[in-house]
């Protein structure tokens, strides 16, 4: 709930603002912990415009990356946790994140642990994040933990952003191709076909096909548009179900070239997540469980859940991985086995994480380098064939005059 308050601080300066709290009493307690004397506090239903709706308000991964780096730096400077979150809440450019940090600071002041305060905001701080912080509190290595978290989130953000951006270009080219073709069929070809048909001469078969397609899109194009919209809605609804997510994740891994990219991306996440957690003192069981939740693929999540059960039953991690050779390659299994035998599993996983990150970078460069010329050639051929189909009869007509 949101409360609007008016208060006076220790120096007698009037203060007013808004505070989020579960109840009125909790809001009053939070303000009193800031050494404020409350004049009035009113429960306020915040009226928001369309663009201020909570649906549009979110904390992006980039914001969490920057926040983690700031927390790490301030911990290294020996600043107290309460002061860190109070300072960051006041200076946050993201309003939603600022409110979250204010609530965390209030929770810290009331005696709740950092991990406990963060756990109250699962939409910003994942279970993985909270468990890392909890491990740091238990081992007394919070500074190192936030440093590991900042480095880890930075790597994941960089990797995810590069992958996403690499896929934007081919999607843009494909959309452009279909828009250009639609404009040709609906606007250009009908005007030219009128000239061709008015001559009464024999028209080549390929030109008849193009004209027939043009007539179809002119008269029934709205049906195609509705079908595309319905298909988009169906895919969106399918992706919101568990079976749909599994199907989409399977498709991702089977698309030529793109599937290899996603496979290496997930392997990089698995190795990097487990390395970060094991380095921070989290048990192998908990590391596997949390990695399954953040890997980003239902296929790999199911595999990791099965691996978790086998490890709980006494199997080694490498032996459990070995049962899924189609998605967990031999090099990963062998490296993990070496790490287990030498007692350096964390180091091996770090090496694997770096290796697969480079593999993802190479796969992205290869994909972009391959798609760009192919798309340009396909676009050129499509437009060229259409133009030849309608311009050739006109050329023949003018040549016979």
Structural class by sheet pairing and helices: mainly alpha
Instruction: List the domain count as a whole number.
Output: 3
Q: Span from first to last CA?
A: 82 Å
Overall pLDDT metric: 82
Count the DSSP helices: 15
Shape: flat
Question: Could you please describe the fold and organization of this structure?
Answer:
The chain has helices at 24-32, 61-76, 81-91, 95-109, 114-119, 127-139, 142-198, 205-239, 242-254, 258-279, 284-294, 298-312, 317-321, 330-342, 345-399; strands at 2-8, 14-20, 37-43. The chain is mostly helical and 401 residues long. The protein has 3 domains: 2-47; 61-154, Type II secretion system (T2SS), domain F (Receptor-associated Protein, Up-down Bundle); 157-401, Type II secretion system (T2SS), domain F (Receptor-associated Protein, Up-down Bundle). Strands 2-1-3 form a 3-stranded antiparallel β-sheet.
Characterize this entry briefly:
It contains 15 helices and 3 strands. With 401 residues, the chain is mainly α. Strands 2-1-3 form a 3-stranded antiparallel beta sheet.
């Amino acid at each position: 709930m949101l409360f609007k308050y008016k208060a006076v601080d220790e120096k007698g300066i009037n203060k007013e603002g808004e505070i989020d709290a579960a109840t009125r009493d909790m809001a009053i307690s939070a303000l009193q912990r800031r050494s404020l004397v409350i004049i009035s506090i009113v429960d306020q239903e915040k009226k928001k415009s369309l663009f201020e709706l909570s649906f549009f308000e979110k904390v992006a991964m980039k914001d969490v990356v920057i926040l983690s780096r700031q927390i790490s730096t301030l911990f290294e400077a020996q600043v107290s946790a309460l002061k860190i979150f109070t300072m960051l809440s006041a200076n946050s450019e993201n309003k939603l994140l600022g409110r979250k940090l204010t609530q965390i600071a209030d929770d810290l002041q009331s005696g709740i642990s950092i991990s406990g305060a963060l756990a109250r905001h699962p939409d910003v701080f994942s279970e993985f994040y909270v468990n890392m912080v909890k491990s740091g509190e238990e081992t007394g290595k919070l500074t190192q933990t936030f440093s590991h978290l900042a480095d880890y989130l930075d790597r994941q953000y960089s990797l995810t952003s590069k992958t996403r951006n690499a896929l934007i270009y081919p999607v843009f080219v494909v959309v452009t191709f279909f828009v250009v073709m639609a404009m040709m069929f609906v606007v250009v070809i009908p005007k030219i076909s009128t000239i061709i048909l008015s001559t009464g001469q024999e028209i080549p078969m390929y030109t008849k096909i193009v004209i027939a397609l043009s007539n179809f899109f002119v008269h029934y194009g709205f049906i195609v548009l509705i079908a595309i919209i319905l298909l988009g809605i169906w895919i969106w609804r399918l992706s919101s179900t568990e079976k749909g997510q599994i199907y989409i994740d399977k498709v991702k891994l089977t698309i030529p070239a793109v599937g290899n990219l996603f496979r290496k991306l997930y392997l990089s996440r698995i190795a990097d997540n487990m390395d970060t957690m094991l380095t921070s003192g989290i048990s192998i069981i908990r590391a596997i469980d949390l990695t399954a939740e953040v890997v980003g693929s239902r296929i790999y999540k199911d595999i990791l859940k099965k691996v978790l059960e086998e490890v709980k039953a006494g199997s080694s991690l490498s032996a459990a991985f070995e049962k899924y050779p189609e998605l967990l390659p031999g090099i990963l299994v062998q490296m993990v086995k070496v790490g287990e035998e030498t007692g350096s599993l964390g180091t091996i996983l770090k090496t694997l994480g770096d290796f697969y990150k480079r593999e993802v970078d190479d796969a992205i460069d290869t994909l972009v380098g391959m798609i760009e010329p192919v798309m340009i050639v396909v676009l050129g051929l499509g437009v060229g064939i259409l133009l030849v189909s309608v311009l050739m009869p006109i050329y023949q007509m003018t040549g016979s005059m």
